[in-house]
Specification:
The structure holds two protein chains of two kinds.
Chain A lengths: L10 H9 L7 H11 L1 H22 L8 H12 L6 E4 L14 H4 L10 E4 L3 E3 L2 E4 L55 E3 L4 E2 L18 H6 L6 H15 L5 E10 L2 E10 L2 E7 L12 E6 L2
Parallel strand pairs in A: 5-7, 6-7
Antiparallel strand pairs in A: 1-4, 2-3, 7-8, 8-9, 9-10
Helix pairs in contact in A: 1-3, 2-3, 4-7
Chain B lengths: L8 H9 L5 H21 L2 H17 L10 H22 L27 H12 L3 H12 L4 H8 L3 H23 L44
Helix pairs in contact in B: 1-2, 2-3, 2-4, 2-6, 3-4, 4-7, 5-8, 6-7, 6-8, 7-8
The chains are: A alpha+beta, B mainly alpha.
Pfam families (chain B): Sigma70_r2, Sigma70_r4_2
Family (chain B): Belongs to the sigma-70 factor family. ECF subfamily.
Organism (chain B): Paractinoplanes globisporus
C-alpha cells in the first residue's frame, strides 16, 4: 500500500472519514456513497482503515520516555535558582566615549558604577544602544569599578582597573540595602555586532570582529527588540536561568547569526564553566524563554 | 518525601504565585516525564527537546500569573511546551539550515527519529518512528498527544488550541500517511510492521484514544471547524 493504487481517491478525505472527522458534516454521506458505489474508493477504504488502525496500535506501543536525569537536574536547578537581576543602563546615544558615573546616591547605597556606551552597527543607520550591566544588589561596594565599553570605532573595551575581561555579573536579587556579596563582580560585557554566522562547530570560537564592525541592516533589524536594554536584560536573565548554574558573568554579547538565523551569542562563565550560548530573537520574551538555539562549552 | 506531594496542581501554582520558591519545581517534577516525551517525539531531537522544555517551563515559571484557570494546569504546561516545540520547528522551516554531514536534517522534520528505547521488535518500532518523524509537524504533534501519549482528543485540542475535529483530522491524515509509508516499505497492503502481541498503551497515561473507524465516531462541533487541512 503506497497510495499509488488509490488513483482517483482523495486519501485525506477518506482518512478524515475513517478517523471520524467528517461525522455530522455534509461530506460524510458523500464519502459514504463513494465507498458504496466506487470500487476504487471501496478498496481504498478497506485497505486504509486497516492500516490506520494498525498504525494507531503501533503508536500506542511506544515505550515510556522519562526525562533523562541530566535534563531533569538542569531543569530543576533552573527552576529553583532565583533569576539574577541585571540592570542595563542605556547611554544617551551621542557616540561619546564611555563616561564613568560620578558618585551617586545609588552608589552610596552600594551599587556599582555603571558605564554606558553606544555602538553603531550599520554605518550610522542603525545603532545598538550601548549599555552597562549591573546587578541591582549583591554588589561589593568596595570593589573597584570596572568598565568595559566602547563607542563606535573603538576596538577594545576599556578595562581600567584589573584587566579582567568585560563581564556581566550575576547575583541573586537583594534589597537595596547595599549588602556586599563576596561573589559579586562588576563589569560590562563586550558588545559586538560581528555578523558572524556561527555553527555548532564554531560557536565556541572567540568573536573575531571588533565592536564597531558594521552589520548588515537586514540583520540588525532582526534585533530591534533585543537592542532595547530592557529586553536584552530579560534575555540575559533567561539565559542565566536556562543555564541553571546561578549567576553568569558575560564576557561578550555578539549580535550575529547562528546557522543562518539571527542570533545573539553570549559568552559567559558560571559555576558550570564557560559557555558560548546562541539565542534567537525571541530570547527574553514570555513565550520564548532563552530561545536557545545552541550552547557549547568553551574550553 | 515531598511535603507538597498532596497539593493539587492548582494549589502548587497558587503557592508559586504567593512566593513559594519550591512549588513550581514540585509541579514540574510531577509532569516532566510526560512533557519531555511529548517534546522529544514532536521535535525529534534530544538537545532541541531539552532546550524547548526548559525554555517553555521557565517562561511558565515567570508568567504563571497569566494562567487563567480555563484549563487544567497540566494542559497549560503541555500547551506551552508543545508550542515551544512547534515554534522551533517553524523556525527551522523559515531558516533552512545546511544539511549536516549525515544528511538527516530537513526543515520541519526531526533530524533523526528519536532514539528508540529497547523494544522487542526494534526494526518495526524504528520504522514506525521514522514514519512518524516524516509527518508534517502539526500532524505529528496531534498524533504524539493522542496516539502515543494517550490524551483524549478534547485535551489534545485544548493543548494545541484547535477544534476537536481538527485533532481528529490531523490524527487521521497522519495515520493514513504513516500507513501508506509503512505499507510501501513493507510491500504489503495495509499492514504496518507489527511487533509481538502485547498490551498497547505502554506509554499512554490516558485511556481514551481517537477512534479509528466510523463506528466509533464522535459528534463534531459545527461544520467548518473540524478540518483544517483540506
Amino acid at each position: 500500500m503506497t497510495g499509488a493504487e488509490f488513483r482517483g481517491v482523495d486519501i485525506d478525505l477518506l482518512a478524515d472519514y475513517i478517523g471520524g472527522a467528517l461525522t455530522g458534516t455534509p461530506d460524510e454521506p458523500v464519502v459514504a456513497t463513494l465507498i458504496a458505489d466506487d470500487p476504487a474508493w471501496r478498496a481504498a477504504y478497506e485497505s486504509l482503515s486497516g492500516g490506520m488502525a494498525a498504525v494507531a496500535t503501533e503508536l500506542g506501543r511506544f515505550e515510556p520516555e522519562p526525562m533523562p536525569a541530566e535534563v531533569a537536574a538542569r531543569l530543576e536547578a533552573a527552576l529553583t535558582t532565583p533569576a539574577p537581576r541585571l540592570t542595563l543602563v542605556p547611554d544617551s546615544g551621542d557616540g561619546a566615549p564611555p563616561v564613568r558615573e560620578e558618585k551617586t546616591t545609588r552608589r552610596e547605597r552600594g551599587r556599582r558604577l555603571r558605564w554606558v556606551t553606544p555602538i553603531a552597527i550599520a554605518a550610522g543607520a542603525v545603532a545598538f544602544v550601548g549599555f552597562g550591566l549591573d546587578y541591582l544588589s549583591g554588589r561589593d561596594g568596595n570593589s573597584a569599578d570596572k568598565s568595559a565599553s566602547s563607542a563606535a570605532g573603538e576596538a577594545q573595551a576599556r578595562r581600567p582597573d584589573s584587566g579582567q575581561a568585560p563581564a556581566i555579573a550575576g547575583a541573586e536579587p537583594k534589597s537595596d540595602s547595599g549588602q556586599d556579596s563576596a561573589q559579586s563582580q562588576s563589569a560590562t560585557p563586550q558588545l559586538l555586532s560581528s555578523g558572524t554566522d556561527y555553527t555548532r562547530a564554531t560557536l565556541a570560537q572567540a568573536p573575531t570582529q571588533a565592536l564597531s564592525a558594521p552589520a548588515p541592516l537586514a540583520t540588525a533589524s532582526k534585533f530591534g527588540r533585543l537592542s532595547s536594554t530592557d529586553t536584552l536584560r530579560q534575555c540575559l536573565d533567561m539565559i542565566a536561568l536556562a543555564n541553571g548554574a546561578g549567576p553568569i558573568t558575560a564576557e561578550s554579547v555578539d549580535y550575529a547569526r547562528f546557522e543562518g538565523k539571527p542570533a545573539i551569542v553570549v559568552r559567559f562563565t558560571a559555576d558550570n564553566g564557560a559557555w558560548a550560548w546562541a539565542s534567537g530573537p525571541s530570547c527574553g520574551t514570555s513565550s520564548g524563554g532563552a530561545d536557545t538555539l545552541a550552547k557549547v562549552p568553551v574550553r | 518525601m515531598d511535603p507538597q506531594g498532596g497539593a493539587s496542581d492548582a494549589d502548587l501554582l497558587r503557592a508559586h504565585l504567593d512566593g513559594d520558591a519550591q512549588a513550581f519545581a514540585v509541579l514540574v517534577r510531577r509532569h516532566r516525564d510526560r512533557l519531555w516525551a511529548v517534546a522529544l517525539r514532536t521535535i525529534g531531537d534530544r538537545e532541541e527537546a531539552a532546550d524547548a522544555v526548559q525554555d517553555a517551563l521557565l517562561s511558565a515559571h515567570r508568567n504563571a500569573a497569566r494562567f487563567r484557570g480555563d484549563s487544567a494546569v497540566t494542559t497549560w504546561l503541555h500547551r506551552i511546551v508543545v508550542n515551544a516545540c512547534l515554534d522551533r520547528i517553524r523556525r527551522r522551516q523559515a531558516h533552512p539550515t545546511v544539511p549536516l554531514p549525515d544528511g538527516n536534517r530537513t526543515d520541519d522534520r526531526p533530524s533523526a527519529p528519536e532514539p528508540a528505547a529497547p523494544a522487542p521488535d526494534h526494526d518495526a518500532a524504528l520504522m514506525v518512528r521514522q514514519a512518524l518523524a516524516a509527518l508534517p509537524a502539526e500532524q505529528r504533534a496531534a498524533i504524539v498527544l493522542v496516539d502515543v501519549q494517550g490524551y483524549p482528543v478534547a485535551e489534545a485540542a485544548e493543548i494545541l488550541g484547535v477544534a476537536e475535529g481538527t485533532i481528529k483530522s490531523r490524527c487521521a491524515r497522519g495515520r493514513a500517511r504513516m500507513a501508506l509509508t509503512l505499507g510501501g516499505l513493507r510491500g504489503d497492503a495495509g499492514d504496518p510492521p507489527s511487533g509481538p502481541a502485547h498490551a498497547p498503551g505502554g506509554n499512554q497515561q490516558a485511556a481514551q484514544t481517537v477512534p479509528s473507524g466510523p463506528a466509533a465516531e464522535q459528534p463534531l462541533p459545527a461544520s467548518g471547524d473540524g478540518r483544517d487541512e483540506r
